[in-house]
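Alginate lyase domain-containing protein
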Amino acid sequence: MTAQHRRRTIVAALASFTASFLLAGASPTLAEPAPAATGAPAAALAPPTFTHPGVYVSRGQLDFVRGRVQAGAQPWKAAYDQMNGHALASLSRNPKPRAVVECGPYSNPNLGCTDERQDAIAAYTNALNWYITRDQRYATKAIQIMDAWSATIRDHTNSNAPLQTAWAGVSWAKAAEIIRHTGGGWAAAGVTRFSTMLRNVYLPKVINGHATSNGNWELTMMEASIGIAVFLEDRSAYDRAVTKFRQRVPAFLYVTGDGAYAKGPVGSGIDTREEIIRYWHNQSTFVDGLSQETCRDFTHTGYGLASIANFAETTRHQGQDLYPEIGDRLRHALGFHAKYELGEAAPSWLCGGNIKRGVGPVSEVGYNALANRMGHTMANTQRLVESRRPAGTNILFVAWQTLTHANNPA
């Protein structure tokens, strides 16, 4: 190699290294491997200009829903009536903020966990109600709830803190985005304090993920992260969330192109076939659409499926459509679980023939994107979605999918 060639090689390497850490918003340290060393994809650039409202639902989607509800069209009118009749939509609801929310395994202890999650969904519910009806009382109620929490909360503690933070953070970001960017009348001081809350209390707990947990944790943490990043217009957080999402989806949903067995989560140290099988709850046969949590239960699997679709909705609104990238996995997974959720008996090779159904109200968003917008045939998913309309809420972080996404072309 000539001296000139060596100089060119060194300059190129330095340029590549500098670009990688600048895009990631991090300082270069020898302790941090370059993305190629971890198997991470290239940095995902946040949009030069963020679109608002653009967390989970766009203005076009909201306008479509408002028009359908006002016209009394189905299934949107039934979905709206379901939401509006729920206790979470009550205008007499009083928020119950806490300075420290403590959540142990399965929310035991439960010191503010249920109150926080339900208040966050209530804020989102009232935000939707505000946009659909333009009744100022609903915007005022959403603001009251958000202001109460932003004035109070300082931390989440105990073992379920990351997941609790994610569940509430998902709904807070959706509610705040609608109220702030649709003329809801939120005072500038309230917006600033809520922004500070999201940046200091929520984002640090979720943005780094949780590689060794079951996949629904990290996927919901990334859903919260991307929503918060858009609301705050934080490009670094946006890029980190997209990168981790792209890493986690293949470790949660299997397709045959992955090889003989599934991938381990990046950073988990779960690599060998034996480790993968244990991590996939002792499932040793891998087929298109199988999830890392299928043999745990369909409920937790559904949490992950919801967050995958919801995350992709947000990035699509920001001009970065990830559905073509993750759509094949999500399409297979929705159809695979819908088949058994609808009653087909599990074969002996699947979870030893013993599955725990209960996927939850989580399929409408992904179905609308993949079947209606992208044109995929999804017979099993269609049967499941249409048979369970209107989809309600799991009282954790999923709510009112039929209302917002059923056949929504926007």
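thats it. The longest helix spans residues 3-24. The longest strand covers residues 100-103. bye
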